Amino acid sequence: MRIGEIAALVGLTTRAVRHYHHVGLLPEPERRPNGYRAYGVRDAVLLARVRRLTELGLGLDEVRDVLADDAGRELAEVLEELDADLARQEAAIRERRYRLGVLLAEPPGVTGPVSPALAALLAQAPRTDSPSAAKDREYLTLVDAAGTGSQEIFALFGTLIADPAVAGLYERLDALAEAPADDPRIAPLAADLMAAVPEELFAAIPEDGVVVTGLKEALLAEYAPAQAEVVGRLMEAFVERGRG
């Protein structure tokens, strides 16, 4: 193979191949009588290895060390490792495309990407303009990102949000936006919210609850005083019932 052919085969430019010659990553093959370099299969494998290692973020000095370790290995072994690297890259691309599809399908106001379990939960959530519902989606996204949620927990949350009565509870919480922290509607609403939560969801909560450590105060600060009182009581109920 000529330099242009081997460069095209491994997805590099001829300039990159010449640079790898210059820095000593790829030995220059002998030239034919016509003056052209003649590259073989091992050269192609070596170049593919260099490309893969640099794509993984290794510097050229680090690549040189890896190639030195490869020098005594059989060609078939190096090829198998390259194939495994490509398979991992292919799987990662499929995962990124799946996450992108989930992101494109998310309800308005939700930022991602999110786990498949949370994506399934958000897909079945009723469309609503409720500010309180939007905050709940944001909180679930935080739980998801922190790894605190599980597929079982999100599935049970799906049962909760599918309840038609939940929309009315959100409306009542929204109505407390201008209310003081001692509003008489707080206790009844907190009780009704706790009553709406399936027992199976309480049982599935881990011992430390679903409140991400250090975030409770920050989350409550997003609500008006009366709303924060309701949400705080619900958070405490999750922690207490989860421990029970």
UniProtKB/TrEMBL annotation:
CDD domains: HTH_MerR-like. InterPro entries: DNA-bd_dom_put_sf, MerR-type_HTH_dom, MerR_fam. Keywords: DNA-binding. This is MerR family transcriptional regulator. Residues 1-69 form the HTH merR-type domain. PROSITE patterns: HTH_MERR_2. It comes from the Bacteria. The keyword DNA-binding applies. GO terms for molecular function: DNA binding; DNA-binding transcription factor activity.
